[in-house]
Automatic annotation (TrEMBL):
Protein name: Voltage-dependent anion-selective channel
GO biological process: transmembrane transport
Residue ranges of the region described as Disordered: 253-275
Organism: Strigomonas culicis
Cellular component terms per the entry's GO annotation: mitochondrial outer membrane
Family annotation (InterPro entries): Porin_dom_sf, Porin_Euk/Tom40
Superkingdom field: Eukaryota
Amino acid sequence: MESAKSSKRPYMTPSLFKDYNKATKDILTKNYTADGMWKVECKHKAPVNTFVFNPVAEFAPKKQGITCDIEYTHEHGGSVKVNVAPELLKNLKTTASYTHEGHKFEGVMHLKDDKVLYELSHQTSVLLQKRASLNEKLTQEVVELGLGVDVAPRCQIGAGAVYSIKKRSCDWNLGCRYFNTHACEMAITTNKLKTFTTSASGPLNFSVGSRDVKLFVAAETVCGQKRPLDGKLGVEAKCLLVPANVLKARSRAQQEVGRQLHHEPPQQLVRRHHG
């Protein structure tokens, strides 16, 4: 007979369907900026019952700006974040969230120019005794729904749909995900069975002299009917000189249908500091 300790699940909750390839996406897209643009930001996490101010400065050839995120987190699961800009009455974004027993509720109100935009969402990963996840989102333009279910140890399948209120059309996706306790992740998703996205990420350990180096590597390919084969490769590692910083690089290759493969050199190298 297995003991209670040995029969515990190897992870806490299943992933949300919208996050099936989150680890890969973070390495390939997170904290990169557009060409010719510089961005400096503070990302300090707010301790409970504390206000935190995180300034953000962006510099582009035709646009420069400074904003600030003011965040407060309560010990009972609530938090409020306000993004303020110099043009306060034209660009003000407020986010309020509350987490209770595995359910997260969030509301966003964005005052932008003369428009008031809103977003309401809910997500949970504790359905069916922590074997299913659900996420919903409502805005002025779309209604989004995602569902994920465990089907085997470390394996999940899911489906999602996005309904456009203005266009009165529905976009749906199917996917499956595998992960393990070594931070390896693989996912395959399809959009209406017309395009297929395959992604994978995981750690890579090696030594340089007497120093151990740990990289996180991610790769993604997108293919489908009458569209080019698109591939991306990215790496992420701690800076050897300043371990609090993270170095990132990525490269992209694209092949038109029936044409030669086109390769883009590594796009950029990002260095960021965790507050």
